[in-house]
Design a protein that fits this description.
Length: 258
């Protein structure tokens, strides 16, 4: 079984002391490829350092909606410069988050649109973040005619799910799927997601899956197999076939080769 971690933040400071061991554990668990998602200019720079030092680790560049108020044209220019590196395979994570509102809505929308523009210019797929936007995010990306990307850590409703699928977007499934109460809705919706549109992710160091969450607060890529196992169980399919299909999905989106 081989697994492609489609979204992690192993460039987070919580991995500073044991990053090499984290990567070793991931490889030993079958996680052979990883995508580190950038959220600020500094995290993109750190992600690039990690990717250049490790085989089969790729990165995306982008500004998270939480940090949109700090974005500028200079920031975008620097991200474009980073994107010249071969390790960069996507733009993101960008999107809208109206849950905590760390940045005003007008700033979030302004820089989401600007980043969509640059991703299109560079022919990079988009990694999207959406939370509690009451369909505003969907309205924007539909108007922008988005054709290539993934809705990371999907947490929407059935209508949103089918809207994303109709646009050809992939759906990122996290360890929330394994949590008894919190993951109930996601487990039900997973039944309606075509296997060829599923990606798996930890979003580490966040969203630790069960049963690991009972032992540690820090999530890491080596925990991905439990998510794949849960998908296989819900889909009533062979886990090796599930993992390989999802692996190929991820390679196709990020154009990393097989």
């Amino acid at each position: 079984m081989r697994i492609f971690e489609s979204h992690c933040h192993i460039n987070d400071k919580s991995f500073n002391k044991d990053l090499d061991k984290v990567i070793e554990r991931a490889n030993s668990s079958g996680v052979s490829h990883m995508m580190i998602a950038g959220v600020t200019l500094d995290t993109c720079k750190k992600a690039l350092e990690i990717a250049k030092a490790n085989k089969n680790i790729f990165i995306s560049v982008g500004i998270h909606p939480h940090d949109a108020s700090e974005c500028s044209e200079e920031t975008i220019d620097q991200l474009k410069k980073i994107a010249e590196n071969n390790e960069v395979k996507a733009w993101g994570e960008t999107g809208l988050d109206f849950n905590r509102m760390y940045s005003p809505q007008k700033d979030q929308e302004k820089w989401l649109l600007r980043q969509i523009e640059e991703a299109s210019n560079l022919d990079l797929p988009l990694i999207f973040h959406e939370r509690d936007t009451n369909k505003r995010f969907l309205e924007i990306i539909r108007a922008e005619n988005i054709k290539s990307g993934v809705v990371h850590c999907f947490s929407g409703d059935r209508d949103e799910l089918f809207s994303y699928l109709d646009m050809g977007l992939y759906i990122g499934i996290t360890g929330v799927l394994t949590i008894q109460k919190r993951g109930e809705k996601l487990r039900e919706l997973l039944k309606d997601i075509p296997l060829d549109k599923i990606l798996v992710e930890t979003d580490s160091p966040y969203l630790t899956p069960a049963p690991q969450k009972n032992k540690t607060n820090r999530n890491e890529p080596s925990f991905l197999p439990v998510i794949v196992e849960k998908i296989a169980d819900i889909k009533k399919a062979d886990i090796n076939e599930i993992s390989e299909t999802i692996f190929q999905n991820t390679c196709s989106l990020f154009k990393t080769g097989k």
